[in-house]
Design brief:
Distance between the termini: 34 Å
Strand order of the largest sheet: 5-6-7-3-8-9
Structural class: alpha/beta
Number of strands: 13
Length: 301
């Protein structure tokens, strides 16, 4: 099966100075989180991927087609910078109309997509307000909707929650989670808690190169030894059952937390609890695995 987007030995930069150095990745449906320090090449990777910056070497393909040889395929990729991209002097409806014409959509298609997206991202009440009348959170919701106007296969998002009030940022994350269900989302963030929460796949860049590319479940499995696991329960007291298995549980909010060893699995423990009449509603890592991995790659450089 063809990847939604593929980078093959890509080098790219500005004014003869390389920023990307031999990038090789194939990305398909799911939510990929891209981490790395400022200046490592994340934004350059996004620009190359969406067809804005032609690579100096190597090849990019969107749905199996090179966007620099066949520009029409560029509409299958969309890029949202970390700041909203709305024209402040146009209404939300006019912004969508303008953007839709740029990417070649017919007026009736623009209207249909605007109706659908404004309901999905809850900005139908903002359609006739100008861009400069929106709060930062409102503008970000609208901008995400606008990035999806052409129904792209690939969506690049650059720090979509940076600078937002924590509650609004949490709302934005709830929208973002859904996006990876049916398209390829590549999301750059400096928030490691957010990365741990959102990622299906984790990429880490340093100095223009990829130093990690792994499924988040693989990362978590590798760090399972001595991990703190929380079991959220609805009924009953899990302490006795966990102590019977040799653990020393502590109560943290709604979770019973233990430090798991190599010979047990969280699934087996949850099954034991359920069998003994404890209603387990959630099992989660209590520590940020992404933070640990990110620090490891930093030390290796």
């Amino acid at each position: 099966m063809t990847a939604d987007i593929e980078f093959s030995n890509v080098t790219a930069g500005y004014s003869g100075i390389d920023v990307l150095d031999g990038i090789d990745i194939e990305l398909s449906t799911g939510f990929t989180v891209l981490l790395g320090p400022n200046g490592c090449g994340k934004t350059t990777l996004f620009r190359v991927g969406c067809g804005v910056l032609e690579p100096d070497g190597g090849r990019v393909e969107i749905d199996g087609t090179n966007p620099y040889e066949h520009p029409g395929v560029k509409r299958r990729a969309s890029y949202l910078p970390h700041r909203p991209v709305l024209n402040p002097e146009l209404s939300v409806r006019e912004n969508f109309g303008f953007h839709g014409r740029i990417i070649g959509l017919a007026p009736d298609r623009i209207a249909d997509r605007l109706d659908s997206l404004s309901r999905e991202f809850e900005f139908a009440d903002l359609l006739d307000r100008d861009g400069d009348e929106l709060s930062r959170g409102q503008a970000q919701r609208v901008s995400i909707g606008q990035a999806l106007l052409g129904d792209p296969t690939v969506l690049f998002l650059d720090e979509a929650t940076t600078g937002l009030d924590p509650m609004i940022a949490n709302d934005i994350r709830s929208y973002l989670r859904r996006l990876g269900d049916d398209r390829t989302v590549v999301y750059s963030t400096h928030n490691l808690n957010e990365a741990d929460d959102l990622a299906d796949r984790l990429l880490i860049m340093r100095n223009g190169r990829l130093v990690m590319d792994e499924a988040i479940e693989t990362v978590r499995d590798r760090h399972l030894t001595n991990a703190r696991i929380g079991f959220k329960t609805r009924d009953g007291d899990a302490r006795e059952i966990l102590e019977r298995r040799g653990y020393d549980p502590e109560r943290v909010g709604q979770y019973w937390v233990i430090r798991i060893d190599d010979d047990d699995s969280a699934g087996e423990i949850a099954t034991d609890l359920t069998t003994d009449g404890i209603n387990v509603t959630e099992v989660k890592f209590m520590d940020n695995v992404v933070e640990s991995v990110y620090e490891e790659t930093e030390l290796e450089q």
